[in-house]
Structure formats: C-alpha cells, structure tokens
Amino acid sequence: MRRFALIVLLVALAAPVFAVTPDEILKDPALEARARHISQGLRCMVCQNQSIDDSDAPLAHDLRLLVRRRLQAGDSDRQVIDFIVARYGDFVLLKPPVEFDTLLLWGLPPAALLAGAIALIVAARRRRAIADAPALSEAEQRRLAALGEK
Q1: Is 124 a domain residue?
Q2: How many CA atoms lie within 13 A of 123 on its CB side?
Q3: Which of the 8 DSSP states describes residue 100?
Q4: Could you read off the pLDDT of 26-52 as tens digits, one per residue?
Q5: Are residues 110 and 145 in the same domain?
Q6: Residue 28 forms part of a structural domain
Q7: With the C-alpha atoms ordered 88, 63, 49, 113, is the resulting torsion angle positive or negative?
Q8: 110 and 138 inside one domain
Q9: b/e map of 111-149 (b: 16 or more CB within 10 Å)?
Q10: Residue 82 predicted with pLDDT over 70
Q11: Among the three residues 92, 122, 139, which one is the final residue of a domain in this structure?
Q12: Are residues 108 and 68 part of one domain?
C-alpha cells in the first residue's frame, strides 16, 4: 500500500513536467529558457491556479506555442507579455500588477488576516472577562433559584 501511495505521489508531482511537449521545445536553448520563464508567469485560463508551463490544457499549449512564436519573431520578453495581456487582460498574469482595478485582489487577504486577528483578540478578552467575573453571592444564588422555581 505504501509503495502504491508513493508511486501515485511521484506521478502527481511529475505531472507538470509532462505539460511542455517535446514538439514545443525550441532548438535554441536561450530562447527556450526565455519561453519557460515567461510561461511560468502566465496563468492557464482553464486551470486558473497553474501556470501555462505547468498546465496540459489545450489553451495552455496554444499559449506556450504563441509565446515561442513571438520570441522567434524577435519580440522581447516584455513585448510577449504585453501582447498576451492585451488579449486576455491582467488576469492572465499569475502576479497581476497593483493597480486600482486589482486593489481588492491585493488588499483582501491582508485585511482578512487582520480582521481574524482582531476577532481572536476580542474573543480572548471576553473569555477572560467572563472567567474573572465574581461568583454569585448566597443571596443572589437564592434569588436565582427562586426565579427558576416559578
């Protein structure tokens, strides 16, 4: 059973390696390295949480080919990225720029963490205040018991 789990784990970890097919790889190692670098920063629009370099979706394949064609045509890395962003928007970038449109995207996680921390502090203080509250006197306990009997 452990061997099977290990094999499944290794295959799952190696899955992104199979995303770039041999027919995509450029003969020029410098261009291929640039293409891989660019592809690692672009989001697969199908998978959305993977780069196009890691995804085996058909759209990711097409985008990898597009990146390589643009590089072979002489575009700079910035020109390739700008071309793809012009077609798909900032969402195609795994690390979108901090702009007014993406402020919520960048600001929500830290704000949620801060709100959670404040909620934990408030809850801890309330719990401590309840624990530190004085016990009921005998007269208060008799009155409470009398109210419960009614």
Answers
A1: yes
A2: 6
A3: S
A4: 788 888 899 999 999 999 888 878 888
A5: yes
A6: yes
A7: negative
A8: yes
A9: eeeeeeeeeeeeeeeeeeeeeeeeeeeeeeeeeeeeeee
A10: yes
A11: 92
A12: no
